[in-house]
Write a structure and sequence with these properties.
A: mainly beta, six-stranded mixed sheet, 12 strands, B: 114 residues, mainly beta, four-stranded antiparallel sheet, 0% helix, globular
């Protein structure tokens, strides 16, 4: 079974509008972490935001926020006030495993295109 | 300024050649990783290391090998390149006990085997 599911292969959003990128996950661990990364066409991976499984508040980093719904096992990324530079692939990822020996699994990604 | 460096950025090479993809980090991170990614697709872990002289295979079977003789250096080697090895290879590192603050990734090496 897929550990990380991103159901939106591609998304369009108008500049200055907000957009939500979906991510659901599957784990039996009580302690885990969820990440979002941005990958522009140049190929590098840029860390955006992190949410721990025990964090009670949703993580926020500038225009990025993570809508964490633990019971539904979802960790959606919300980008507010989209900019042209936000056009990129976005990957949801999860780390699980005992402390010190954790690995991170990535989803298949969502390609976001911001329209002027 | 990047703290993790991958060279070369792009490589086109003939079938059967031996290649080494370089990855170095200046952050003193003990954990390092290699991911393989086809264009527009997900990342697959192929190798990881939790410290000097520690290397493990990842979730995706790979014909490549790695070594970790120094903390800062984690090269990946293909003894005999094949067209099926054409992909992007991303190196990452992480310090501390957990990966809670994400990996730092290099810029990647885009390998084409002809």
């Amino acid at each position: 079974a897929q550990k990380i599911t991103q159901t939106q292969p591609g998304m369009f959003v108008q500049e200055k509008e907000a957009v939500t990128l979906d991510c659901t996950y599957d784990t039996s661990d009580q302690s885990y972490g969820l990440f979002w990364y941005k990958q522009p066409s140049s190929g590098e991976m840029i860390f955006l935001i992190y949410q721990g499984s025990y964090d009670e508040q949703n993580a926020t980093e500038g225009r990025y926020s993570l809508n964490f719904q633990k019971a539904r096992k979802s960790a959606n990324l919300v980008i507010s006030a989209s900019q042209l530079g936000d056009s990129a692939m976005y990957f949801c990822a999860m780390r699980e495993g005992p402390g010190g020996y954790q690995k991170v699994t990535f989803g298949t990604g969502t390609k976001l295109q911001v329209i002027p | 300024e990047a703290d993790i460096y991958q060279t070369p950025r792009y490589l086109v090479i003939g079938t059967g050649k031996k290649i080494t993809l370089e990855c170095s980090q200046t952050m003193g991170h003990d954990k390092m990783y290699w991911y393989q990614q086809d264009p527009g697709m997900e990342l697959h872990l192929i190798h990881y290391s939790y410290g000097v002289n520690s290397t493990e295979k990842g979730d995706l079977s790979s014909e490549s090998t790695v070594s970790r003789i120094r903390t800062e250096h984690f090269p990946l080697t293909l003894e005999s390149a094949r067209p099926s090895h054409t992909s992007q290879y991303l190196c990452a590192s992480n310090g501390g006990r957990t990966v809670d603050y994400g990996y730092t990734f290099g810029s990647g090496t885009r390998l084409t085997v002809v």
